[in-house]
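Chain X:
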Amino acid sequence: MPYDPRPVSKGGNRGIDDEFSRQAPEGKFRVVGVDTFDGTDWVDGDYETLDLAKTRIQEKTKGESMLKYYIYDDTGKFVDSAGTF
């Protein structure tokens, strides 16, 4: 499917805040992946520490293109990212 920035509920392919929340459970950090070619996104996992989340996004994006990973805290605030468009 080509990139469509609208939320899934409006016919697009962006799931964040529609199919899942960017907010991690209390005391954790949520990692969200985005395929920047087709616009799909997903929860990769919730991590106990920021260091674990940072390690995960570095591992997942190493040598990849058109792939971004984002880290959010338990308030839904953006913390860090890795990858390229």
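Chain Y:
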Amino acid sequence: MGISLSVLKVTDDHIRRFDESPNLLEALLVETIAHGSSGRCYLADYWDGLDFLLTEGQAKPELPLCALKRGDVTYVGISDPTHAIFSTTTQALARALSLLDESTLRARFDPQRMLNVGGDGRVVYPGRLWAFPDLAEATFRELMFYFSRLRDFTAQASEEKKGLLFNRYEDW
């Protein structure tokens, strides 16, 4: 059990419509995420670690690389934190992800810092992943698995000229 993140491809029209009608968004999330649809990019509870690698742990990072936590639109009135990026931001994210390689991300991987980002006691979720130095290599390999999944999914959405919808939820 943990807080997972799933990413879905959506059109810009859907992004706008969801803002006006949260019921449509909630129905999509239930159908796609709760019922395990294959049309999503599941990042499990590694999403915050990926965000740390993508944004280098910056306190106020800019789009597109902070898209796992912040988007062009944030939805209110639904059960789980959800936001979206339009197709142009998805294209920028796809380009940015394509420029990142494993050696760059390995240099950013700092389990000790992830346990106390910015020195203010904020821990990259879930802290249990970063707390065991003996497991650092295995944890980094898992992060790379989810990074590759995100990069490929985002590239596909970019080619399809779609936006992305990000939903965090408690995973049972």
